[in-house]
């Protein structure tokens, strides 16, 4: 995991610096009409953030644990305006990813780490709810569909789920807003469609505040759930269809085991392995959020944070979010490997 994370850092760092455009000009140019003033500010910004240094120095400055900028560790030196090498002041000797310092945002100068924490408090509950609902619905539906293979209800559910999986999430989100928002039918229940709270939600009590958040979360969670629900149910069905004809299932039936025991005690544990593999993608999805869903419903979560960082060429935001998702992907793969041994003891013994 350590060399993989370093590889992710190196690749994203190289791609970011290969993209055309000057991050310094984008960071200081908003609202300033005087080109000379913009350029002067850009020069100061590059010097303050080390953008005038070589790419090698910038990479190791981001990696840490030493701060290589002017206020960084006194062991290192920075060029002054004349090009001479001078020792750093040593005011902030440590920095970089190895000391969990993700830097500051380019425009607002806010701490990226604290902003990530606030965004995760919004994204994680929505993502966890969407994942739990998807699994709770998909697994029994996949088992049921495999049991009813070839029947009319299996055909209808297969067509419906494939159609559901094919619908783009932005269209589903806009459709839900149209149906359940102010423009929906009068006889249809109304739901909040923007944000996670009403404007006056801070004045509500704890119970009312929670109810307000729950109502606001219904449509975003529904939009985040339907695609993964359709995909997971098909994977579960395929796994069950592969397992049901095998000898140990036929033996269980021959011994007189009930159909429920055959499905859930014998076939399910072997058929669930493909779904366990998919779990490796769940953890990064939990922390990265959904850019489209958060844009449609105007939710200030991780997805929107990533989008804003990419749009504004904010190096620290792009690097921090990419590294976080990369690490969580590797953790998800590790968790899947551990779950394999719990579901199928033969893997553990092998």
Structure description:
There is one protein chain. This protein is mainly alpha-helical and 350 residues long. It has 2 domains: 2-99, no CATH class; 112-349, MetI-like (MetI-like fold, Orthogonal Bundle). Helix content is 66%, strand content 2%. The protein is built from 16 helices and 2 strands. The protein has helices spanning 2-18, 23-28, 35-49, 55-63, 112-147, 152-166, 169-180, 206-243, 247-254, 259-271, 273-278, 282-288, 291-296, 302-311, 315-343, 345-349, and strands at residues 77-79, 85-87. Strands 1-2 form a two-stranded antiparallel sheet. Strand 1 (77-79) and strand 2 (85-87) form a beta hairpin. Helix 5 (112-147) packs across helix 12 (282-288). The longest helix is centred in the middle third of the chain and has 38 residues, at 206-243.
């Amino acid at each position: 995991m350590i060399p993989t994370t370093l590889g992710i850092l190196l690749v994203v760092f190289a791609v970011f610096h290969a993209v055309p455009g000057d991050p310094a000009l984008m960071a200081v140019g908003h609202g300033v009409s005087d080109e000379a003033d913009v350029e002067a500010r850009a020069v100061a910004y590059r010097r303050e953030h080390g953008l005038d240094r070589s790419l090698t120095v910038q990479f190791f400055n981001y990696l840490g644990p030493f701060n290589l900028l002017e206020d960084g560790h006194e062991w290192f030196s920075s060029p002054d305006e004349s090009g001479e090498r001078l020792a750093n002041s040593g005011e902030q000797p440590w920095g970089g990813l190895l000391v969990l310092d993700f830097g500051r945002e380019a425009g607002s100068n806010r701490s990226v780490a604290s902003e990530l924490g606030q965004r995760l408090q919004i994204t994680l509950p929505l993502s966890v709810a969407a994942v739990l609902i998807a699994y709770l619905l998909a697994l029994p539906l996949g088992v049921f569909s495999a049991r009813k293979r070839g029947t009319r209800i299996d055909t209808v559910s297969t067509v419906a789920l494939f159609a559901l999986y094919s619908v783009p999430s932005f269209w589903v989100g806009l459709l839900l807003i149209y149906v359940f928002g102010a423009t929906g039918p009068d006889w249809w229940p109304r739901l909040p469609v923007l944000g996670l709270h009403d404007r006056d939600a801070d004045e509500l009590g704890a119970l009312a505040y929670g109810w307000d958040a729950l109502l606001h979360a219904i449509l975003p969670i529904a939009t985040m759930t339907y695609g993964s629900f359709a995909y997971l149910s098909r994977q579960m069905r395929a796994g069950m269809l592969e397992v049901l004809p095998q000898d140990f299932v036929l033996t269980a039936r021959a011994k007189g085991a009930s159909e429920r025991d055959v499905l859930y005690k014998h076939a399910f544990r072997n058929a669930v392995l493909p779904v366990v593999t998919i779990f490796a993608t769940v953890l990064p999805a939990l922390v990265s959020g959904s850019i489209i869903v958060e844009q449609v419903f105007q939710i200030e979560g991780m997805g929107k944070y990533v989008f804003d960082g990419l749009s504004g060429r904010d190096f620290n935001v792009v690097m921090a979010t990419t590294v976080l998702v990369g690490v969580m992907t590797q953790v998800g793969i590790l968790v899947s490997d551990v779950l394999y041994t719990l579901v199928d003891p033969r893997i553990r013994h092998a």
